[in-house]
Amino acid sequence: MSRGRRTALAALAALACGGCSPPDEIVLAISTDLSLPKDFDVLQVQVFEGGTGKFDAAYERLGDSEPGARLPATIGFYSASGGGESITIKVSARVRDALGPVRILREAVTKIPKNRIALLTLPLNFLCDDSGSSEGSGDVESTLCEEGQTCVAGACVPKTIDASALPDYWSGNVYGGGKGEGDGDCFDVTACFADAKPVEVDTAACTIEGDATTNVALETTSHDGICDDDDPDSRCLVALDAGSADGFQVGEDGRIQLPLAVCGRMADRIAAVVTSSATAACPQKAAGLPTCGPWSASGSKEP
């Protein structure tokens, strides 16, 4: 475990008061499919109750040797009055500093659960790039979705989430089976897609051939995503989570349903869709299996 990782976890625990609260708590888990600090290097988390700001923190130097946090990051918010409070959460990916340009905004409106600790996962992913902006005051507003909506996999969906439908928190569901201390597993994007070839995309339905063991990644045209640092001419990839609203689903016809935004961006931001079969060394990429890299709180591999 690196000193930077211990410092990051200590900072998050101090701010979140994780583990010292009564069991009326929601744990926010923040992940990304991008590469840090190349794609963004600041994480901002804001929480409001009834329009009043309750929490506002920016974690800088992501992907550095002494980062403000490692991703996935978890922050717990608990109730001092028995739960049930409605809160609005804004999570944003920024560049340079706490007031720098915003690349991605993800929002949620939910309630602090009663008598349990619930998990709310809000990824900052490539398909929601250019979804937020800031006027320099630190406040972040949506540039993609209307009021009451947020970006998920490039589409605008209602941002209200039923807290009773959230799963109970277990660190292993965030950190690849670990506790976020450098343990647990991670998904090596470069190695797992080393021999992957582009597949034909049915752009009308936005589907591809595959099955329940297929891994899927997007080859970007803008150098976004995880690249092979040892090969300057390598492609850059964004791995999609299987069985997730933020990733892909296997349809009843056996074909893989991609997010519709993938086909909408194949003319400019996405060069190809590539696939590979899951193996023992490269299991299927899922939301609870973070990508490997110097920014990661899980595993020790670097892409």
Molecular structure report:
8% of the residues lie in helices and 32% in strands. Strands 12-19-14-16-15 form a 5-stranded antiparallel beta sheet. Strands 3-2-5-6 form a 4-stranded antiparallel beta sheet, with no helix packed on it. Strands 4-1-7 form a 3-stranded mixed beta sheet. It folds into 2 domains: 171 residues, Immunoglobulin-like (Sandwich); 89 residues, no CATH class. The N terminus is likely disordered. By secondary structure, the chain is mainly beta. A hairpin with a 7-residue loop joins β5 and β6. The longest helix is centred in the first third of the chain and has 14 residues. The chain contains 3 helices and 19 strands.
What's the SSE blueprint?
Layout: H1 3-16, E1 24-30, E2 42-49, E3 52-59, E4 73-78, E5 86-94, E6 102-111, E7 116-121, E8 132-134, E9 140-142, E10 149-152, E11 155-158, H2 189-192, E12 197-198, E13 207-208, E14 214-220, E15 226-227, E16 236-239, E17 249-250, E18 256-257, H3 260-264, E19 270-277
Parallel strand pairs: 1-7
Antiparallel strand pairs: 1-4, 2-3, 2-5, 5-6, 8-9, 10-11, 12-19, 13-18, 14-16, 14-19, 15-16, 17-18
Summarize the structure.
With 303 residues, the chain is mainly beta. It is built from three helices and 19 strands.
